[in-house]
Prior knowledge:
By secondary structure, this protein is an alpha/beta fold. It contains nine helices and 14 strands. It starts with a helix and ends in a 5-residue tail after the last helix. Mean pLDDT is 85; it is low at 1-45.
Amino acid sequence: MLDNNINRRFALTAAGLFAALAIAGCGKQESASAPAAGAPPAPAAARVLVVGTDAAYTPFESQNDKGEIVGFDIEVVKAVAQKAGFEVKFVNTPWEGIFNSLDQGDRDLLVSAITITDERRQTMDFSQSYFDARQLIAVRNDAPITRFEDIKTLKVGVQNGTTGDEVVGKLLGKSSTAIKRFESTPLALKELEAGGVQAVVADNGVVVHYLANNTAGGFKTVSDTSFPVEKYGIAVKKGNAELLARINQGLEAIRADGTYAKIYASYFGSESK
């Protein structure tokens, strides 16, 4: 019994001594790293925001020969980030999973020629619009197509899950076998060149850029007044008001100082109205 009491007291004493040494050690470490009196605190390292983009939508986003993600959207977001005071890292993200990556927190924001729609607003928040787009029809020069209704009897290529897919689905029927869906608009346009489809419906910026760089194909574009103006926005997770405000601040700044106009002109030839 006596031996047990001695052992217990010894254990308690040792534990107390160990705790005191641990506390002293922690205090020493903190005082060593504490800034000198009157010195400003060291700035915290800013977290780099991860931007999801489907880099298969030239000229808005694509990969160059070095594997770098480049394009109109990319330059806009870089300029916005510089004005708003944050850093960004672009990650190639397939369109099919891009919105889920934002919802799950794997991406902080998205820029990928994303049309602002009421349906999408239910699950994410959008910045101010930074680009106006319309659907455009691409067909061969000799095709007797002058309006959207004229493609009802054709085999039509679209990018899966886009607004082009939606409007063609309404015209031909969502499950129509005449609709051929692709992972990207350039792939749909290549299929038009190969004769696998007779028309492609997609955003004007992508179609115009592709045809301008593939003049040997012998294609023309057809617009239709029934196509509404679509507005592209930068998407953030629902409720992230702080980041949204900073993005909008950056957008306003690059419009005000002419940066946006220069970026737009370098891709589309003239400033957006």
